[in-house]
Amino acid sequence: MEWTFDSAERLVGALRAGDVTSVELTDEAITRIERDDRAINAICVPDFDRARAAARDADRARARGEDRPLLGIPVTVKESYNVAGLPTTWGLPLHRDHIPAEDAVQVSRLRGAGAVVLGKTNVPLGLQDVQSFNEIYGTTNNPWDHGRTAGGSSGGSAAALASGFGALSIGSDLAGSLRTPAHFCGIYAHKPTLGLAASRGMVPPTAPALPADPDLAVVGPMARTARDLTLLLDVMAGPDPLTFGVAHSMTLPPARHERLRDFRVLVLTEHPLLPTGVAVRAGVDRVADALVEGGARVDRGSPLLPDLAEAALIYMQLLASGSSAGFPDARYEQLRARAAGLAANDRSLDAARLRGTVLSHRDWIEVNHRREVHRHGWRGLFTEYDAVVCPVSPTPAFPHDHHSDPLERLIAIDGVAYPYFDQLVWAGLPTMPGLPATAIPAGRSPEGLPVGVQLIGPMSEDRTPLRLAELLERVIGGFEVPG
Fold it and tell me: Which residues form the Amidase domain (predicted)?
């Protein structure tokens, strides 16, 4: 029997029942990677010898009566996580030989739960792209169309899952890096509430693995089913044992509802600053129709919704401010001069990004205050609604574009070109206020490419969008094997 595309939940049951061993699952995954990954290039750092040893250990542990959440389950890890003995480069050639001596906290939690780590998955240069390619490891292709991107920055993980290379993966998300690859590859991903899962050890090469709280960025689970997201999130969630974990434990509140008909959902398809492509709108509409047919209350607009245009501008400024801290002085002064030349009434996304790169501390505090106002607006919205359904990105996966300057790239939306990074407006919607968001498959485009949507939930109520994802998976279907 082949187990390649089975859910982690089903594999756990099979292992408990003695229907399969971890060694068999691991060997099957490795065989598939060795056979198929030449065309996909998802697994950039294989660790097969240690994986086979871990699988043998898992089988022995189970024979002794042990039973941990992921005992014996083959998984992958995004390259940007420190794994002791394996390179962590973030795709940066200068650091191709950097090998950490200690696992990231989330890798430790995977191992503690009994998972078998097959290896690491590919990323873009410095994790700063909507594609996954770099000089060290090359390009990761979309399993549905090798001429298109698998997304970034967790594109290798998404492509690995869609190709059957392990049952689960862990990634990270600052600008849609979990959700966009899931949308492009037809899998599931969950961006947790900001701060819900410790990120120590998911750091650039040579940086110390400190228990810092990054702004906007989170780490989170990726899977082929909605229930598997919850399984993995339960392993990942919780404060860092070096900080709040010393005194705090964490219990997520239950989902607000268990039945589809009890959910109150706001559905969005249009953004004031960027069009949404026809294929993506159709995916959102498909989910909306399923909600209505399931008896849920569905609205297409609400005065409680925070201003989407202002939200995107705040997000772009915060995003850019974090990325410019390491710029050389000359480059920073050049950007500051350009920002000073912007017209006061220029409220474009490009202008927001440029202003963000040179925010003074005083100005950053003002932008952060505006973020807090938006967070409070979301609290009000979630007294009336349980979730918001909207796009992850305006298009399905696009053709590879390796232009050396990302600022010179364009994204085509139904044949019309827009600045490349404008496509982040939907991904930034829950990221800016730190809300949880679950990406789910919602069908395919006319060209046969996966299309996903995201389910945004209330702060710290991650189980609500995750439960809604499970219910929708039952009625609209979920992961499909690339043909």
Answer: 24-464
Cα 39 to chain centroid distance, Å, stands at: 23
> In what helix (H) or strand (E) does residue 417 lie, and over which residues does it extend?
strand 416-419
The token duo for 334 is 């050049």
| 8 Å CB contact between 432 and 186 | no
Q: What is the pLDDT of residues 239-276, one digit of tens each?
A: 999 999 999 999 999 999 999 999 999 999 999 999 99
Cα–Cα distance, 58 to 61 (Å, whole number):
5
Angle CA 163–423–267, to nearest 5: 85
Q: Are strands 145-149 and 416-419 parallel, antiparallel or unpaired?
A: unpaired
Smallest CA-to-CA distance from 107 within 133, 139, 135, 80 is with 80
Closest alpha carbon to 11 in 260, 227, 267, 220: 227
Helix (H, G, I), strand (E, B) or coil at 116: strand
Cα(387)–Cα(263) distance, integer angstroms: 8
pLDDT digits over 53-97, tens only? 999 999 999 999 999 999 999 999 999 999 999 999 999 999 999
Omega before 321 within 30 of 0, i.e. cis: no
